[in-house]
Amino acid sequence: MKFGGTSVADPEKIQRAAERAVAEKHRGRAVVVVVSAPGEMTDELLTLADRVVPGKKDPRELDQLVSTGEQVGISLFALACQARGAAAVSLTGPQAGIHASGRPTHAQVERIKTKRLLSELSAGKIVAVAGFQGLTPNGDVATLGRGGSDLTAVALASALKTGVCEIFSDVKGIYTADPRIVFEARKLKEISFEEMLELAGAGAQVMQARSIEVAERFGVRIQVRSAFHPQAGTWIVPKEDSVLEKAQVSALALDKSEVRLSIVDVPDRPGVAAQVLSTLSNAGIAVDMIIQSAPAGGKNNISFMTPRGLGHKAQQALSGVAKRLGARVDLHEHVAKVSAVGTGFRHHPEIASTMFDTLAEHKVNIHMIAASDLRISVVVDAKHGESALRALHKAYGLGRR
Fold it and tell me: Which residues pair with 108 in a beta bridge?
């Protein structure tokens, strides 16, 4: 079981989450619970760091700082379980045998030594494990990036061979669109790993993409459900097990967290795209939806999306290569990405035509288009993002039935 920050945000919610774990224990199950930092504690710790040291900070020390949030969560959770008559113990990521590698703040789970976990479970205890963290080869704690508690939970389920991982949050499951924007959005009973990965890549923030990759690789079925409501949530399962969607489009996503960068009037010759993208790679800047226009007059344009927080860094990184190429860099901050996710798009051109017809009917201009067999994404003006999402949800018939 994994409880996100909103599920353990205050004493009452911690007690409610503990009751769920204790109930599973009373059903005769061995229970491992991954707990996130309560509420907004991680953001509060980062804000405190900014107040103490404005500007750039040592990533290693940031990991030392933010990893304490999960330690608060697991200790309170274990105490709440004990108060309900259940033996329980809290373990940090390192204590639970989670070993990590890679750079601070973005480490990867290398392996999990389960000896301590199995010992505590054999003693009849509920084990509360700190999410989002692991032990590096040099003995430091490293964090796994935003949403890293999802990765911790799935990795533990894989190492312990449970086959199932329950993710509890403040949402009832995975919907055909964000229900806060689209009132008619419908909760899905099942969705495939592949579709969930595309949704995560399209901006849906229900699950961390890396955790879905691990779950698919090791055959861990995931149930996303509400910590506050008893009904079943949404199962994320292998494609061959997913029988939910007979229609081609499963869900839509809206992402307002990215900006569009264009390097304009670059020479149309071999190696130019490599120069541009290697510059971004060397600066540690992630990109999405890379589009190169057809050449005209010996010139073309290269556009891509990047996280909003990296927009100005990317613009600065590209300024040198643009100057050498006789080009310029344009940054467009007021954009949104709208995506349709499903299966079989390549063989059903009517899915794309429905998207473009609908957006044209609602006078929404498209800046960029990217498509695969599982996803079609378009970039539009930010002011049209939500209305485009609602219009497409209706056009694809995804509403409540």
Answer: 101
Q: Which strands, in side-by-side order, build the sheet including 133-135?
A: 108-112, 98-101, 133-135, 141-143
Residues 137 and 321: their CA atoms lie apart, in Å, by 37
pTM of the model: 0.86
Map out the domains of the chain with their CATH numbers: 2-243 (3.40.1160.10)
Give the model confidence (pLDDT) of 37-66 as tens digits: 999 999 999 999 999 999 889 999 999 999
Chain centroid to CA 186: 20
Return the structure tokens found at 218: 């090791």
What is the rounded CA–CA span in Å between residue 51 and residue 47? 6
Distance of alpha carbon 205 from its chain centroid, rounded?
Answer: 5
- 170-197 residue pLDDT tens: 889 999 999 999 999 999 999 999 999 9
pLDDT, residue 200, reads 87
Query: Quick check: 117 and 127 in contact, CB under 8 A?
Result: yes
Q: Residue 190: which residues within 8 A CB-CB, separation 6 or more?
A: 234, 235, 236, 237, 241, 242, 243, 244
Amino acid at 373: D
CA separation for the pair 46, 32 (Å, rounded): 28
> At residue 246, does pLDDT exceed 70?
no
Please list the alpha-helical segments (H only) found in 147-220.
Answer: 148-159, 193-201, 209-218
d(CA 255, CA 307): 10
Q: What is the DSSP letter of 15?
A: H
Exposed/middle/buried for residue 261 (C-beta within 10 Å: 0-12, 13-18, 19+): buried
99-145 pLDDT, tens digit each: 999 989 989 999 999 999 999 999 999 999 999 999 999 999 999 98
